Amino acid sequence: MRLHLLAHGTTKASRAARFPRDEALDAGGRRTAGELAGRLRAPDLLWCAPSARCRETAALALPGRDPDGDAPTGPDPGAWAGRSPPTWPPRTPPRCRPG
User: Fold this and answer.
1) Contacts of 77 by beta carbon, 8 Å cutoff, 6+ apart
2) β-bridge mates for residue 48, sequence order
3) At CA 49, angle to CA 25 and CA 57, rounded to 5?
4) Which of 34, 51, 82, 92 has the most Cβ atoms closer than 10 angstroms to its Cβ?
5) Distance between CA 73 and CA 89 in Å, rounded?
C-alpha cells in the first residue's frame, strides 16, 4: 500500500498568515494542486478532511477520485478564524496581573 500525505493548497488566509475559515483555495493553491494531477499514483483509499480547501485540493490533485471517508479535521480556530497574530487582543495571564 502506498501512502500520500498532502497538505491543502494555499488560501487567501494562509497567504496572509491568518487562521483559516472554511474557504476555497486561491489561484496559487489551485495551480499547485492541479500540477499534482497525473503525478500521483491513484490511492487504494482516499481520506480527506471535510474542509473546502482540503476537498478542493484532493479533487484537483486526484481528479475523478472521490474520497472514501473523512480524515480528522484540524483544530477549530473559533474566534481567531480570519485573524492574524497582530490582530489578537492583548491578554495578560492572570498570574501576571498586578494586585
Assistant:
1) 19, 20
2) 70
3) 30
4) 51
5) 26
pLDDT value of residue 56: 97
pLDDT in tens, 6-23: 899 999 999 988 888 899
- The rounded distance, in Å, linking the Cα atoms of 12 and 23 is 8
Q: What is the dihedral of CA 49, 50, 54, 56, to 10 degrees?
A: 140
Answer yes or no: is pLDDT of 96 > 70. Answer: no
- Angle in degrees, CA 38, 21, 16, rounded to 5: 80
CA distance 58 to 37: 9
